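ping. complex inputs:
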Amino acid sequence: MPTTKLTLGQCESVMYRSLERQKWLPNGTTEQNWKTKTVADWHLDDPALPADPSFQRKTVELILQSAFYDAGSAVAPPTPILTDKSKTLADLAQWLFDNQVS
Amino acid sequence: MRTILRSLLGATLALTLSTQAHAISRNFSYRVDVTNNPGTLEAIGAGFDIRYELAQASANPAGNHFAALLGVSGFQTFDRDTSVVGVNSTSYEVALVGRYFKVRDMQLTMEEEARMRDLAAKDPVGGGPGLTDEEKAEYLQLLGGGQKARRHWAYRFRGVCESTQDFDRKQYAVGAGLTAEIPALHEALDKIPALTRNPGTEAHAQPIRAHIGADWVAHMPDSTEADGTATSGRAIGQVAWGAPVANGLLLRVLYEGEYLFDPPGQMGDDRKYNSRFQAWLTVPVRDGASLLVKWIDGRWAPDYIKDSGPALGLTVSFD
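pong. complex structure:
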């Protein structure tokens, strides 16, 4: 059972490294510019598969949830962030920090 | 083959709301696309997709998890011609959806979890003092097997009513489907798009998504039958892919196909297999507005006439 709440810095690291490991960072993302990359840069489900139009968004949610679980924490699916194209990866990391479940 | 450039219009509105309480998450989403009708590119209308999902929520997403889905999707031209089957129509779906996910074979031990937290605290991405190359390699190893080890499959059992908007013509289907990523193939297909990208660009194509399904379709409209209806098995295939090209553009590819094992007599045996292939680019013009360049090929509702050629238009996104 998850028992630990990660710090914001740890959340940023787990988010970034898990997506990097799965080759799922937005194109052009680096360790220097990641905070400014937006959900629009991700092109998730673009084009949408008619039978499952949010398949890639769910993939990213599962990658993040799995990584947080592996780090001893737990987090809800970040759907509210991943469905807002104006949000940045910094917003995503903050949301994950704020929505950990312990 | 039609070679005349046809004007395209597109606009998108989308919203997703999500809440989670206890072990259940609730997700509501809608998407509306104002565009030329996908069959003939003649009339303008709205494509819509509205979904409500009750999903099993778990701290550990690995393994199988299930959800119940209600969905309404379809297309309606603004000229309100409700008699055009296959274009001005709506699908009403009830489904049980299962989702299988895995990035590793064995769960981490408590010591490995603690080590992962230590490394995360040192990571300069999160403001930490820095990681040695060995520590970074250890960290990535703790994060699982990478893209090639990832397994994400979605399977569903569904019942669907497909009808015109006035319900004058309708058919019913029950069946099953599977959606998954096709591993590795995108790396081979990306060889050509990669040639158009600037050297050193941190860009890559994502895995291809594919869906296969099989339905038993009943009450299909068929004027050649005494009771006016027919039944048939139906196989469905869909493929979607996006690859970055040139300087920040995205090439999109979408294939939709269906095979009717016993098509209604009024459609004819040559309508057993119907498909549509589309490939397009959007070139940003100004905030939210883009020039749309598309190639379409295939046979699709309402007239199933072989159609192939380029199209040019404008799309606006409000999401």
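Chain B has four helices and 13 strands.
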